[in-house]
Sequence to fold (296 residues):
Amino acid sequence: MSAIIEDSFQRSDFFSGITELNATDILNRGNLTHLKSGEFLFRQGDPAVKCFFVLSGRLKLIKLHEQGKETIIRYISPGELTAIISVFKGKDYPVTAESIGATEAVGWDKQIMEQFMLEYPPLAMNMLRCTINRLDDLQNRYLEICAEQVEQRIARTLLRFMKQSGHREEDGIRIDFPLSRQELADYTGTTIFTVSRILSTWEKKGWIKSKREQITVRDPHSLVLFSEHS
Amino acid sequence: MIKIDPEMTIKELLKHHPGATTAFIKRGMLCVGCPTQAYHTLEDVARIHGSTIDDLCAAIQEAISE
Fold:
């Protein structure tokens, strides 16, 4: 566990301005949860009682429409926080969090989170910054939905995932988590048919390589140009 | 003069030498703010943009020293 803590501390903006000793204290005062792949950490509509920090693995945040359609709001990678909403009284989880691969997360309840925010002021600032960044990200995606063609949105999405979770390999930059065509459709607000058609076109052009839920961006430069100028 | 390592990624370069930004802008390269910043090295971007690594390094050195 200590190696994980050290790693989380090194790469997380959540602990910016907090000493390593204090970060360890903060992490140790939470409850560690282990999830297998495809388990739910919390569900949309349940009372938001805990805030979580991902140590390893990944969470997919899903928002369900009342008619059954679902949309993917974002992926939470190691070093990121989710369900900050639990700091406020009487709120429900706005989304469902599902694990992608084995995942470990530390959870804190409202009282302890409030205590931390008073005890360690930078933590409160970091949480505010995180919230603003997420809002900013959603605003950008909203603009993309309103103003851009679906091809551009898919290109931007692949680049966003690549930036967040890329792994450099011989033939390109691999997106480091399983990503199905359906998930890509749920994230970009389109259908699996459209995603498949577009990915096949890009595969023929040599921009990407896709294989069983694995996508490698082989030519990010062309994809960037396409996303900005098409 | 500062030695520029061709195997350094764009992200590392811009972190240590923010002044290098102008070199990319002047050459019409989209490296600043590119999602590939953390993965592509100076060698990679020189190749992609069809210039030589020596050319690019010289331009970066000039930008940093300005």
